[in-house]
Amino acid sequence: MAKDAQVVPVFVPPLATMLAHAEEAKGEPLTEAEVARARDHAVCIMMHPDRANEMTAKRGYRDVEPRNCWADWHRLRVQVTGKGYLPKIVLCLVGGADFAERAKPVLEEAGVEHEFTPRDERMAESFAASAFRVQPTLTPADYETIAQHESALYVLSKNYTAAEAPDIARTMLLVAARLLAAGATAMKCESSGVAHSRVRWTVLAIRADNPADHAERCAGLFNAYVQYPIQSEADLYTCGMHLLGKPDLIAANDLLPVEDAVELFRAFAMYLLAECPEGSFASGHTFSVSETAPRYRVVWEPCSGYAEDEFFFNPFGRWRFTAV
Predict the structure, then answer these.
(1) Which of 165, 315, 134, 310 is nearest to 236 (CA)?
(2) Which of 13, 120, 187, 207 is such that its CA lies 20 to 30 A from the CA of 215?
(3) Quick one: DSSP state of residue 157?
C-alpha cells in the first residue's frame, strides 16, 4: 500500500465489544473515565476504508467512534450489553364502533403487535396534554370527536436499535396513515407524548415517504414524532428523538428565549438527521443556526428525569446546548 493511501483505525475486537465486556466485569455501567481508559488500552489496526466498511457491514453495526467514545458508546450500549431498554413506538388511535372491524385488514397485512381497548373517559384530556406545542393542529371539534370515541387501538413496534430507527419509524407512520384512512378519528404517539390532527398525521406520513428527498423524509419523521419545547423548572428540551435513533436536545431556560430554542432544536435536529455524516459530530463541538446567529457549545449527557423503563427515556442520551 502506498504511504499516502488513506487508512482508518479499526478496533479488533470492536471497541463496543470491549466496553461491553468491561461493563460485565464491573457489574454496573461504566463511567466516562472508564470508557476512555478501555479505549486507550484497546488494540486497533489501520485499514483501508473499503475494507473497514466491509467489516462494519459483516458485523451489523458501526463501532463506537473513538474520538467521541463516551457519547457514542450509548448509541450501542443497550444493544451490545442487553442491559436497559431500546426505544419502542406505541401509537394510540381512537374511532367509532366499527373502527376495530375496519382496522383488522390493515393490522393483519402489516403484522404489527396491537391491542384494542374499550372507551376511555380520559382520552380527550390525554390528547390535549399531548397536543404538539410548536404548531397545534387539534381543534375543539377534534376534541369533541375524541371524547365520543367508542374504541381505542394501541399499535406497537418492536424494540429497535439506533440503526433501525429511521426505517421502523417510517413504517409505523405509514401503517398509522392507513389506519387513519380506515376510520380512526385521531392519533397520538405514546412514546413521545405528541398528538396531531388526522390531516397533519397524513401529511407527515406522505413527507416521510418521499423517495426523492432525504431531507423531506427526515423532516416528516421529526415533525411527526418529536415533542418540543417541553419546559421544566430549569430546562427546555425535546422528547422523541430516541424514536429516530438520536439523542434528545436540551438547553437551560436562562440560555435563550423559548422561540429561539424552538428554532435551534429544529435546525440541529435536521442537521443530525439529514446532513451530519454518521459519527462526525462529537461532544464539545459547536453549532449555530446561521452565520449571524449565536453559537453554542454542544455537550453530551445521559438522559435524566425519566426512569429507564419509561417510554420517554432516551438511552442514547441528550445533546445539551451551553454558552461558548
Answers:
(1) 134
(2) 187
(3) P
Query: Would you list the DSSP string of 263-310?
Result: HHHHHHHHIIIIISPTT---TT-EEESSTTS-EEEEEEE---SS-TTS
Q: Please give the share of the chain, as a percent, with pLDDT higher than 90.
A: 97
Angle CA 224–227–232, to nearest 5: 180
pLDDT for 233: 95
Give me the residues paired with residue 115 across strands: 154
**Residue found by looking up cell 409505523 in the block:** 172
pTM of whole model > 0.90?
yes
Place of cell 455524516: 277
User: Which segments of the chain does DSSP mark as H helices, in order?
Assistant: 15-26, 32-41, 49-59, 69-81, 99-110, 123-130, 140-147, 165-181, 198-208, 214-225, 258-270
> C-alpha distances in angstroms, 185 versus 94, 98, 141, 171, 177?
6, 12, 11, 20, 11
Taking the CA of residue 189 as centre, how many other CA atoms within 13 Å lie in the half-sphere pointing to its CB?
Answer: 30
Residue 211, classed as helix, strand or coil, is: coil
